[in-house]
Amino acid sequence: MGEGLATRDPSERLESPKRWRTLPTVLTVVEVEKLLAAPNTDEPLAIRDRALIEFAYATGARVSELVGLKLQDVQFQDGLARVFGKGSKQRIVPVGRRALGAVALYAREIRPRLDRGNGRGILFLNARGTPLSRVGAWGVIKATARLAGITKRVTPHTLRHTFATHLLEGGADLRAVQEMLGHADLSTTQLYTHVDRDYLRSVHRNYHPRA
User: Fold this and answer.
1) Is residue 138 assigned to a domain?
2) Catalytic residue from among 166, 192, 201, 208
3) E strand residue ranges, the chain
4) What residues pair up with 109 in beta bridges, in sequence order?
5) What is the tally of structural domains in the chain?
6) pLDDT, tens digit (0-9, with 9 covering 90-100), for 139-159
C-alpha cells in the first residue's frame, strides 16, 4: 500500500498476538519477615518505615493509596482501614494486629514530632513534615529491602502482589481477595492463581493420593 502496488491492506483484519501477562516478583514469607525486621526502630523514621511496610503488606494497598491514607482512615478499634483507590473508589480493608500495632506506635510517638502543621492529616509524613510522596514510599521500601539483604527487586507493587499471593496460597477465597485489592474485574485477580507453579506442584505432591 505504501508503494501504491495494492489498493487495500491485506493484514488489516489480522489480530496481533496477545502478550503474556507477567507479574512482578513475589516475596516468600521468610523474605517478608526479614524485610519487616530490617528497620532499626531506635531511629524515629525507621519506626515510620516499618509501619508503612507492615501496612502495605497487611492490606495490599497501592502506593497511591498508601501515601493518600489519612490518620482518620485507620479504625484501630475495628482493625479496618478506609482506602481510596482508582477513580476515588472507597473500600474497607482489614488490617492485622501487627500492622495496627506498628501504625499505632508511629502515629502516637513519631508522627506528632514530624508534623509541623503541613501534614494535612495524612498518616505517613516525610522528614520535613509534609506528606510522603509516591517516590518517597518507593525509596523507603527499596532501601529497607537492601538493608534486609533481599536481592530481588522490591517495590510497593511487589508487596501488593505478595499480599494477594500469600492469601490465595493460604486458601483465601478469590472474590474476597478481589474485594481487598479493589479490582473491578475478577479476571485481574485470577492472575494470582497462576503465580506460583512450584507451590501448586508441591500441594499436588503432598496431598494427592497418587502423586
Assistant:
1) yes
2) 192
3) 74-75, 80-84, 90-94
4) none
5) 1
6) 999 999 999 999 999 999 999
> Exactly one of 13, 62, 161, 205 is catalytic; which is it?
62
In the set 48, 50, 166, 183, the catalytic residue is 183
Does some domain include residue 200?
Answer: no
Which one of the listed residues 86, 89, 98, 204 is annotated catalytic? 86
User: CB neighbours (10 Å) of residue 127?
Assistant: 11
Contact by Cβ (8 Å): 25, 142: no
Instruction: Identify whether 153 is a catalytic site residue.
Output: no
Amino acid at position 184, single letter: A
Segments forming the whole domain that contains residue 128: 29-194
Respond yes or no: is residue 208 known to be catalytic: no
**Inside any domain, residue 83:** yes
Among the listed residues 48, 50, 111, 160, the single catalytic one is: 160
Is residue 166 annotated as a catalytic residue, yes or no? no
* Rg of the chain taking only CA atoms, in angstroms: 21
Q: What are phi and psi of 125, to 5 degrees?
A: -110, 160
The pTM assigned to this predicted structure is 0.79
Q: Is the pLDDT of residue 80 over 70?
A: yes
**173-200 pLDDT, tens digit each:** 888 888 888 887 766 666 666 555 566 6
pLDDT range class, residue 123, cuts 50, 70, 90: very high
The yes-or-no verdict on residue 208 having pLDDT over 70 is yes
**Which CATH number characterizes residue 178's domain?**
1.10.443.10
pLDDT tens for each residue of 89-121:
889 999 999 999 999 999 999 999 999 999 999
Please indicate, yes or no, if residue 16 is contained in any of the structural domains.
Answer: no
Active site residue 197: no
